Amino acid sequence: xxxxxxxxxxxxxxxxxxxxxxxxYSEVHPYNLPASEIAARGATAVIFSGGPGSVTHIALQPDxxxxxxxxxxxxxxxxMQVLAHLRKGRVEGSKIREYxxxxxxxxxxxxxxxxxxxxxxxxxxxxxxxxxxxxxxRVIASTAGLPVAAMEDRETRQFGVxxxxxxxxxxxxxxxxxxxxxxxxGTKGDWSLGDFVKASVKRLGEQVGSxxxxxxxxxxxxxxxxxxLSHQALGDRLYxxxxxxxxxxxxxxxxxxxxxxGMGLKVKKIEAAGRFFEKLRGITDPESxxxxxGETFIRVFEEEARRIPGLTHLIQGTLYPDVIExxxxxxxxxxxxxxxxxxxxxxxxxxxxGEPLRELFKDEVRKVGHLLKIDPLILGxxxxxxxxxxxxxxxxxxxxxxxxLQEADAxxxxxxxxxxxxDDVWQALAVLLPIRTVGVMGDERTYGQxxxxxxxxxxxxxxxxxxxxxxxxxxxxxxxxxxxxxSITRVVYDLTSKPPATIEWE
Length: 506
Description:
The chain is 32% helix and 25% strand. The protein has 14 helices and 18 strands. The chain has helices at residues 12-21, 35-40, 78-86, 173-184, 193-208, 221-234, 252-262, 273-280, 286-305, 320-326, 362-371, 376-379, 399-418, 471-484; strands spanning 2-6, 26-30, 45-48, 73-76, 90-106, 120-132, 138-143, 146-153, 158-161, 212-216, 238-244, 268-271, 311-315, 352-354, 427-441, 444-457, 465-466, 488-493. Helix 6 (221-234) crosses helix 11.
């Protein structure tokens, strides 16, 4: 097992995920986890994650005794600076800051870079730099503006890299991590997602104990996998509930209910659209929307729970990108958004929370779904936000606005399928903008709304790039939208990657 100490990077669990892909179990823990606990857990190696802090100011530091465990250690970005600081090197703020893609020069042979070739593209995100390497370390890589981009003390098996090897923007980053995990830490690589399924079923059973759980299902990949996994753990003590909040895609409520019941889940459907629209009346702030929807969801579940004796837990299909972008889970990571599955939960809740997928990424969840023999048509669906179309209406959420957006979204998805590119897209969506624009229809001047279309490719939702869709697909989509939805007079296409943008607009 390899332990990742979380210093607040948005990518901290991505490190653990990359290690799991190498067949090695990995856990993320707070940056100050005592060295005694690391040893007690039988760790094979330790990784210091990146983070938004600065060791030149009030720094987050691990238990110093971690350095004396004799375990292989890899510091990433801020983690490298922490390593340098603890080993009496020098870290300083630099006039030259590196953000984004940089070309790394491998200066010396190192087991960390075994099999890597130049040019070596690396993803940087730092202002501080190591300006004096610690005693015992030697520099093994640099960039044009950074003399110490990677360092090693081979005798103690301690390494530091200023770049992020865990992100896809560092193409040879997986090789670097594999070298650390296999060559330096000497792991076997015999762990699998099948082991995760077994452990999750066991853990959820222990968590719920003799009680029972209610599970929110939406027909999406996450909630479906969470429900099937929870059913294995709890059997008839799991009560799946499908809440139709009126914010789903066109015709989706009926399709989802029929699919879930067809899988053998005893799903109860609750019609609550009117209640949600009433709660959302007059709200335009994105965070307020999410919290309003999250709290209403929970209240609906609690009301249903009171009708079921012995109910103690609420199961949700929360994934790690939802968690890490909503709040800090194990370290001091910066908040990017709130999410109804996590940030939107009310402070007082009658049910305990169960989130069996909260440390997985979307592609890992799909793999777990295959192991659970879930229909590939469900596993291949694009991600859809828990708050539904409410966060794709950048204004007050009204039934009229939802109907218009449902139509636009349905046309977009239909044309992606018709053009044979739906499966090439990780997520596609339509957004109703809070602006009006002039148009001409039937020789008359119009003044209608604008819809923005967005389609991205991604591996895990942490980063994403826009898709260069075929011109005919975009043309047919735009023409159909303005011809069939009277309130919409203009269609635009979003060409922004993540970062700097997020995938959703709110």
